[in-house]
Design a protein that fits this description.
By secondary structure, this protein is mainly α. The protein has one domain. The protein has helices at about 5, 10-35, 45-65, 65-75, 90-99, and strands at about 85, 85-90. The protein has a two-stranded antiparallel ribbon with strand order 1-2. The chain is elongated and about 55 Å long. The model is unreliable at about 80-85 and about 90-99 (pLDDT under 50).
């Protein structure tokens, strides 16, 4: 990989999401449109299923684009050179994740 991509977690996420966001948007939009077409059904169960799942799918896309990146980049921050009250930061961070 070029150094401009693998320089940090932020640059890697930016490169990945620039490549993947349009594909995720296309698949999410087509699936949501198909589910919303179910809203034209005369059967209430099909109508409700289509509307509800289209809403869930759109919410999932928004969360993957925003929240998932924030959580993953926060979790993957390097902590190898830090000292926390005289203890190794990696051990402290690992204990924090287990609690």
């Amino acid at each position: 990989m070029p150094p401009s991509i693998s320089g940090s977690i932020a640059t890697r996420f930016a490169w990945t999401y620039n490549r993947a966001a349009s594909a995720m948007l296309t698949t999410t939009a087509t699936t949501a449109i198909c589910l919303l077409l179910g809203a034209t059904s005369p059967f209430p169960a099909f109508k409700t299923y289509g509307i509800f799942n289209a809403f869930i799918l759109i919410c999932d896309y928004v969360l993957v684009i925003t929240w998932c990146v924030a959580v993953c980049s926060t979790y993957l921050q390097p902590t190898t050179n830090l000292q926390v009250r005289g203890r190794d930061a990696q051990a402290t961070y690992s204990l924090y994740l287990l609690t």
